[in-house]
Amino acid sequence: MASSELTPEYTTFEAYLDKAVALLVVVGWNSCFLQMIYQSFRHRTYNIPFLPLFCNVTWDFIYAFMYPSPTPIIHYTGLLWFVFDSILTYGAMKFASNEWSHAPLIQRNIPLIFALGIAGAASGHLAFVAQFGPVVGFRAGGLLCQLLHSGGALCQLLCRGSTRGTSSTIWLGRALGSGSLAVRTVYRFFYRPNMANMGIEGNGPLYMWFYLAYVFLDGIYGIVFFLIKRSESSSVKKGKVY
């Protein structure tokens, strides 16, 4: 949609919507990252499954250093997230063996798994750039990373059956960041289907599917987290009684 087709009211609303979403994304994800780092080193474990971690840290590096965004806030946020993900990667390499005593083959080969996983994820992101260009690669890679993160976190929580390494703040931060983007995407899909958007977020059924998938997965995660947390609290109380 050309700018001449936009009403002043819409332009003002869209500007405020974008600013609000940007603020919620930064606050939500930064708090999520900081809590993940804290809980990882506190519990001596990792809280992002391997595949999403590999995809995240390589996506951060490629679009922070190799194909940086011309928008300063996006570029500097990407740099900050690369630092966060690098710390989480270090923590995962340091503590991953604590979670794999039941699988000695994995436990003994953590460095090799990380080397191959990071190389594979980086090559995938770069192949996407070579095929579709950095703008589409940035968008599509980011969507895939977030889907793997939300889905992987839920699977990890279910497999462990424990809240070890995670917290309600991590969940709330992730839900706030992805949820705010979902609200804007749904609004654009239904009310501005023909808008020409040149920012980092697209418009259309595929984008809406991704963001609604995040909301669904993060919502299920929250329910499972609090059910497990309640079970853990009950076990502690019973232990004190007996």
How does this model look, in words?
- This protein has one domain.
- The protein has about 240 residues and is mainly α.
- Helix 2 crosses helix 5.
- One of its GO terms (cellular component) is membrane.
- Keywords: Membrane, Transmembrane, Transmembrane helix.
- GO terms for molecular function: lyase activity.
Attribute tags:
mainly alpha, single chain, 8 helices, disordered N terminus, 242 residues
Tally of discrete structural domains:
1
Q: Please give the share of residues in helix.
A: over 70%
Secondary structure category: mainly alpha
Q: Please indicate the percent range of residues in DSSP E strands (runs of 2 or more).
A: under 5%
CA radius of gyration is 20 Å
Membrane topology: Multi-pass membrane protein
GO molecular function: lyase activity
Subcellular location: Membrane
Keywords: Membrane, Transmembrane, Transmembrane helix
Give me the secondary-structure topology:
Blueprint: H1 8-43, H2 50-66, H3 72-95, H4 104-108, H5 110-132, H6 134-160, H7 168-191, H8 205-241
In a nutshell, what does this entry contain?
This protein is mainly α and 242 residues long. It contains eight helices and no strands.
